Amino acid sequence: MNRQRQRRERFAFTLLEVVLTLSLSVVLIVLVGGALQFYARDMNVSDMEIRQTQLATAVMQMIEDDLRATLHTEPVDTSGLEALLASTASQVTGGGGGGGAGGDVAAEEDLSAAGIASEDSTEPPPESSTLDLQSGVAVLETPGLIGNQYQIQLDLSRLPRLEEYVAMLDENNADIQDVPSDLKTVAYFVQGENMFGGVQDKLAQLDPESQSNAAGGLVRRSLDRAATVQAATNGNLTMLGQTGELLAPEITAIEFSYWDGITWQLEWSSDEYGELPLAVQVVIYMADPVAAAGGATATTLSSDAMRTFSHVIRLPLARPIEQEEDAGLEEAGL
Asked: Are strands 183-191 and 217-224 parallel, antiparallel or unpaired?
């Protein structure tokens, strides 16, 4: 009997062994919980990075499609017609070219009557337009492209889609009334957070607790060129600033630079240069998911805590402007 009791007492656990077992169990649970939390956070950051990459790719593709469809009209070359009218007028007035100065004056009068300006007549260059797409719009004399480092506006040629006719019949649309056309004026810019009178986020309007101020992010405004010019010339800038579509609130900044064939320019106007840039570089900035997961906001993030996406877009209708500069130097004898 005593031997059986001793054997049974040997199978029991002491208090020290129980405390050590519980301590090791707690440590193991803490380690497993930390590993799971680290794995979940790492997966969340990776998911945010993938989503940002996909969003940047979609935005870049949209901007590329618009830039590659940019339209720029070229003046008609009427040198042959001018020479023909001049020779015909000189033969009529001077009897075979003997009219002298009177024949030249009559030829110039005939050219002006035909609506053709002579080569000596110089027209004043169009005034440079300042670009501030949040409060207004820059109107170009001819369809083309105008932009600075942070904003861009272009006129593109594209056939209207069927849904544009449905949007025209929507009576609840508070934006400027757009009309379906094949010549659109498209603008890209980033508006600040809590901006009064800016473009509203249509998804945020579904939340009754959301604020009425506009959210920050990349804005794309697409309007008919005639409607845009009319709104800008009639002073309807308030509704023009509220018209557009908030593409991506995640984008905190965007930058543009324009390649002229030699260097990258920070500003461009097709009215001043006479041509489109050969290429446009687009740089998009987004908040780093690691910094965002740490509780930092978009306004407090530094430049090191931003993700950068860059893309260079070639414009097929662009021509180098250095050829015209070389021709001007040759005419000047330099």
From this structure: antiparallel
Give the residue with greater pLDDT, 162 vs 298: 162
Domain around 165? 55-67+130-331
Number of domains the chain is built from: 3
In a domain, 125, yes or no: no
Please give the DSSP secondary-structure letter assigned to residue 150.
S
Q: Distance between CA atoms of 225 and 180, rounded to whole angstroms?
A: 10
Q: Write out pLDDT tens, residues 218-239.
A: 999 888 888 888 877 777 777 7
Q: Which tokens belong to 229?
A: 């010019």
Give the CB-side neighbour count of residue 280, counting CA atoms within 13 A: 31
Tokens for 80, please give them.
Answer: 């042959």
Question: pLDDT tens across 250-269, in order?
Answer: 899 999 999 998 899 999 99
Judge whether 56 and 286 are in contact, CB under 8 Å. Answer: yes
State the pairing for strand pair 251-259/145-147.
unpaired
